[in-house]
Amino acid sequence: MTKGELKYEGKAKKVYATDNPETYIVEYKDDATAFNAQKRGTIANKGIVNNAVTSRLFTYLASFDVPTHFIEQLSEREQLVKAVKIIPIEVIVRNKTAGSFAKRYGVEEGIVLTPTVLEWCYKSDALGDPPLNDVTAIALGLASPDELETMMDLAMDINDGLITFFANRGLELIDFKIEFGKLPSGEIILADEISPDTCRLWDTASGERMDKDRFRRDLGNVEGAYQEVFKRVMGDANA
Ligand code: UDP
Question: Does a structural domain hold residue 217?
Answer without folding.
Answer: yes
